């Protein structure tokens, strides 16, 4: 094996080994946030003045103050959802780029093997021509007892020369291919590294937003958390009622496709499973992890993130949606749910919640997309 072949082969092996390290699964956030102290010190309930100083005689937290907390929580979890989409997108790109680099590494190895074989063939052809071309053709013809045999041999010689030229041209093309494979592998490696950094940045933001939201809720007393949950429920019901009062449900009468029915069944079978950012099942899901896996189960692969689902899938008017269609929420397409009929959706809401059924109008609808259009 030549030095060039060894270096390219070792480079290809190194690429695959490096990808194994880069492709290692990220430790789940939930596993990193378990308390180390079995008896943590309770956090004092913030006073109405917002100082955080406990005061036995202070007035209870008002609904207006809890509404402020609810709005802040909504903002924190929204930002976490945006960061989760960025993380998932980087993850998807990294997986694709890793596979492309492995393919290129394999092509480099095969190309080097082909180049070695071509060099051997060219060398053999050159040696044969050297042995058969020591005398001028006219002398060989004069000495030959069978001129016809010599002419046939000369024709074979010309064919051999043409074949050698062809081998040289093929060798040059193979060398050019190897050079291009190396450049492509280097470019994809740089993109892979950029996506790795993007994933880490998104991961840090997710953790920061979720930790802030969890602390905000943890600072409340039990009865205050119950009132907060009731405020969230009331707000969702009011939004759903307003959406239904628009008469939109009177226009929605589409029947699910066969694939749509399978997707709905898969999604509803996950009800009760916990939300986890970046998760695609089978025990936990984030919003787009649930919808993408449901449609994979139905036999239709779709983009991994809510933003790409909105960008790539066919848009459908809300009044024409049918069970199995995906409803994209918020102006930045940061949340997605699956429509299941009768004005309801199944979705993975946010950290601290489980896959559940909710009203389709409880969040601001950006639009509807259909995976099996």
Descriptive overview:
- The chain is an alpha+beta fold.
- The chain has 10 helices and 6 strands.
- The protein has helices at residues 3-22, 29-32, 63-132, 137-143, 147-218, 222-245, 248-251, 258-269, 287-297, 306-312; strands at residues 314-316, 326-329, 335-341, 344-347, 356-359, 365-370.
- It has a 6-stranded antiparallel β-sheet.
- The longest helix has 72 residues, at 147-218.
- The radius of gyration is 33 Å and the shape is elongated.
Task: Tell me the major beta sheet.
Answer: 6 strands, antiparallel
User: Which shape, going by the Cα principal axes?
Assistant: elongated
Give the averaged pLDDT, no decimals: 74
- SSE order in H/E notation? HHHHHHHHHHEEEEEE
Helix content: 55-70%
Number of strands: 6
What key phrases describe this protein's structure?
373 residues; alpha+beta; disordered N terminus
How are the SSEs ordered, and which strands pair?
Blueprint lengths: L2 H20 L6 H4 L30 H70 L4 H7 L3 H72 L3 H24 L2 H4 L6 H12 L17 H11 L8 H7 L1 E3 L9 E4 L5 E7 L2 E4 L8 E4 L5 E6 L3
TL;DR of this structure?
This protein is α+β, with helices and mostly antiparallel strands and 373 residues long.
């Amino acid at each position: 094996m030549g030095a060039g072949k060894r270096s390219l082969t070792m480079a290809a092996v190194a690429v695959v080994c490096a990808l194994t390290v880069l492709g290692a699964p990220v430790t789940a956030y939930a596993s990193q946030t378990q308390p180390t102290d079995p008896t943590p010190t309770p956090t004092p309930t913030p006073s109405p003045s917002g100082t955080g100083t406990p005061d036995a005689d202070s007035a209870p937290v008002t609904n207006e103050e809890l509404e402020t907390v609810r709005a802040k929580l909504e903002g924190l979890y929204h930002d976490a959802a945006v960061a989760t989409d960025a993380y998932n997108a980087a993850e998807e790109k990294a997986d694709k780029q890793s596979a492309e680099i492995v393919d290129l590494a394999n092509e480099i190895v095969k190309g080097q093997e082909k180049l070695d074989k071509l060099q051997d063939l060219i060398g053999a052809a050159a040696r044969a021509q050297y042995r058969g071309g020591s005398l001028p053709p006219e002398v060989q013809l004069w000495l030959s007892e069978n001129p016809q045999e010599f002419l046939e041999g000369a024709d074979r010689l010309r064919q051999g020369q043409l074949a050698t030229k062809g081998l040289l041209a093929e060798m040059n093309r193979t060398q050019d291919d190897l050079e291009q494979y190396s450049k492509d592998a280097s470019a994809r490696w740089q993109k892979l590294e950029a996506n790795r950094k993007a994933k880490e940045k998104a991961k840090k933001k997710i953790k920061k937003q979720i930790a802030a939201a969890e602390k905000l809720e943890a600072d409340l007393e039990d009865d205050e958390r119950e009132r907060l949950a009731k405020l969230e429920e009331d707000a969702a019901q009011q939004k759903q009622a307003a959406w239904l009062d628009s008469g939109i449900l009177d226009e929605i009468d589409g029947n699910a496709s066969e694939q749509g029915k399978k997707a709905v069944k898969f999604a509803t079978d996950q009800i009760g499973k916990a939300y986890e950012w970046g998760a695609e099942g089978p025990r936990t899901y984030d919003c787009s992890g649930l919808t993408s896996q449901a449609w994979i189960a139905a036999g239709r692969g779709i983009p991994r993130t809510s933003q790409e689902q909105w960008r790539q899938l066919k848009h459908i008017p809300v009044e024409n949606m049918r069970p199995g269609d995906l409803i994209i929420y918020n102006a930045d397409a940061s949340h997605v749910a699956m429509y299941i009929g009768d004005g309801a959706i199944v979705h993975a809401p946010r950290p601290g919640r489980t896959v559940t059924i909710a009203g389709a109008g409880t969040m601001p609808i950006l639009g509807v997309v259909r995976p099996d259009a």
